[in-house]
Amino acid sequence: MYQPKDTSSYSFVFNRGYCTLYNLFIRNWKIMSESVVNILNLNVRFKDKIVLDHLSWNIVRGQNWVLNGISGSGKTTLAQLIETPKGIDGTITYNFDKNSPLPRQVLYVSNWYHFRNLEGDANFYYQQRYNRKQARDTLTVSGDFQVFGKEKNLDIADADRIIDALGYRELLDSQLIELSSGEHKKLQLIKALWLKPQLLILDQPYAGLDVASRKNLNTLLEELSSIGSQYILITNDSSVPNNVHMYAQIIDGKLVAADTNNHHHEILHELEPLPEFLTEKPVYHADQVVKMIDMNIHYGEKQVLNHINWEVKAGEKWLLQGHNGSGKSTLLSLVCADHPQSYVDGLFLFGKQRGSGESIWDIKEKIGLISPELHWYFDPAATVFTSIASGFYDSIGLFKQLPYSQTVKVREIIAFLNLKDVQHELLNTLPLGKQRLALLARAIIKNPELLILDEPCQGLDNDQTQYFNKFVDKLCANGTTLIYVGHYESALPSCLEKRILLDKGHVVKIETIQ
Amino acid sequence: MANYFNSLPLREQLNQLGVCEFMDIAEFADGVAALKGKKIVIVGAGAQGLNQGLNLRDSGLDISYALRQEAIDNKRDSWKNATDNNFKVGTFEELIPGADVVVNLTPDKQHTAVVTKIMPLMKKNSTLLYSHGFNIVEEGMQIRKDITVIMVAPKCPGSEVRAEYLRGFGVPTLIAVHPENDPEGKGLEQAKAYCVGTGGHRAGVLRSSFVAEVKSDLMGEQTILCGLLQTGSILSFDKMLEKGIDPGYASKLVQYGVEVITEALKHGGVSGMMDRLSNPAKIAAFKISEELKTIMRPLFQKHQDDIMSGEFSSTMMKDWANGDANLLKWRAETGETAFEKTPAGDVKIGEQEYFDNYTLMVAFIRAGVELAFETMVEAGIKAESAYYESLHETPLIANTIARKKLFEMNRVISDTAEYGCYLFDQACKPLLAGFMKTVDTDLVGKNFNEGKSGSVDNAELVHINAILRDHPVEVVGRKLRKAMTAMKSIKTA
Fold it and tell me: What ipTM goes with this model?
């Protein structure tokens, strides 16, 4: 969080030759008096690539913006620099309202959030939250709120409404480690809305939120701007709050006005024919891929899944839906052999009773998985190539020498998904859209029997989402079994044929999709 | 019970100390087959017990937990750990008689009591598995002759054992078979299968013996791993305070410095760590560490001698019998040191700054790692074993100091290690008093390079680099680290 020392006007001026302090002063005197943040000639390069190119942006007080456009255009980079203008090439001038009681600061809520344990360590691992251990080393949600409230001098009572609006009350006693990625996101949103900074920037605020929470978030944002705060949303979603004033995109490193979120600027290349090895029908080990008979999962007193009965047959295409916290991730963790409580009667995977001598790797080799959590905890040392290759072994990162036949497949899929130019880059340095594509490639590289796509399009733009779902349709035409999690009806593959709906850990509906 | 090692003839002592073979991954091709379908009962559900059990079950093995009746009745943490993860839990009487393998993962101090209790319940031709050989080697516990006795010791904390497994990797592991208890010759196959079940086979496995494991483990933890890190941290902090460095800064530099510095050790060995210094600082650190080696060598030798003769363990067991009087007293004293009581300041220290402003710790670590390694090898321990118990574990222990200072280190390590650590610390501080008088803030607290020209003599630098790189701990380290390249780096503050 960036808090300028002198809040009336605080500039970072870097000599660009032509852009002297004097020039700047004259040109912007007028604008600065009414803007909250004024950006002039901001340049950012990443290695050889120009990300922002003399970008200028005047954010007038009271104006709410939506920043949209293609993945990788520099939106997140820009937002981070507005919050913390460290070592920048260019000028960012802040002019907060001195008369407002709201904190004179820019708060940026990132797309994803790294929480820490009580020792300040962020070294957690994939699916750690399902391993029950009595030694508690992360804060509870309410403990986290208390620390934040104390630090920022906030009244805990003010948070109550926000907590309710985003459906968070039930999570107050949960430990941070137990939260899902969507729930971590909400935690950040609640804190931001509670703090009410003069300028709030939310990066992909809707990612992972269910439909109701998303509506409530919009209402809260509308209220926020009515009391003197303002926001910038980085999103490609079209159902944004009613009081958005301006739309913009970053194109070729410059800020360009846009009309609404319904844009089509990137020419969608038609899908190439699939690599040969992905068109073959997967080899099924059993007709019944998943069977749950009266499955229950509880954490201490808290029941997370209640009497679940569900059957997935080979080749079926399922849509799994439910509110945040309805138990979707837990249900999938049972299927993916990631949950220690799956060693019970009543769970059958690929025709075998769970806990009958199989290892989790025997199960994982039949599944291709992409999920926010897998992505979150993925090996930071993995490149695009090694990430995809690790799909052959279901490991998070590649620890083996890859045989030639598999190297060839990785190369084919890299070419197919247009990832060739970034294949040796570290996965986590790429734009989110590319990372997701690479992880999808990882999921399908072994042509699995069962493909689990848990919110695969989180953070993708509209075009990427369409492209992605078309790809899924094509892929699954070979008879792959699919379980797909997605909140929004508009952004689903068309091959889905059955739906299971969860609510508070219960199956409330199983139906055929028309 | 008599000390097992001391009961052996010299020939057999040397023979067992010399068991040391870095195993090829191909030796694990049989996977968990040797334990498939066998009933494995773990005694103890702490960090190692729980996490090893989770991994083994996820590898398709049949795992349950035997707990004491009180732990079950009072729903202690160990009971909750096991039942919340859907493990079968029962009393010793209920589970041990049916067990094919009993895994003893209780603290050292309880071994004699636990083993004495479970041995009569164990069925004929079953297996008893340890993860540390103290009970067998130092206490001389005699196990019934039909029972196979093996050891599988993951060389990382329990949480890492789990985290690495779920990534599809593992942690470096040491395995051994007790030669007195391998009646059917199945010990090694079972130890290998158990190792595969925890994921250890992917990260490098060292075949050792109970004797080699105990004698090297004790030596490592008492000297370089815990003892010297404690002494070095306290002396460095006190020196900075004496010289007027801000206490908050000093506290942070010491608390996190060992972790950042030893992270370099993990990746590139001693020479990799020394390479992080500027050339003049490296030459200074080299000279100081030579001096430190000369001063501390007799102390390292004394520790090794006391470990070999059994003097150390008998002294410590007397303290056990005395209700841990000394251990508790020394623990309290450590809690009272100025370093422990000064919280880390809210200052940003960059990664390179930890090297530039803490050259003294780099010198301490080089001296300690090389001394521990040299002393172990001179005592008949093989280079690979000595590497694991000196250089390899140093970053893991340093990580605990970064979390909550010496308190945390001494909490995480075993009581045996903690006891030895205090012994070393008490002897080492007076030994270094004269040396510390020569130390100024350029070595600890301020940037060594400040106000210096940065130029060095080529020949001297080449000479020093060669000495660093050719040290036997570096030669064996380069080979072993190749097998662990995929190990996750520890995040630093």
Answer: 0.83
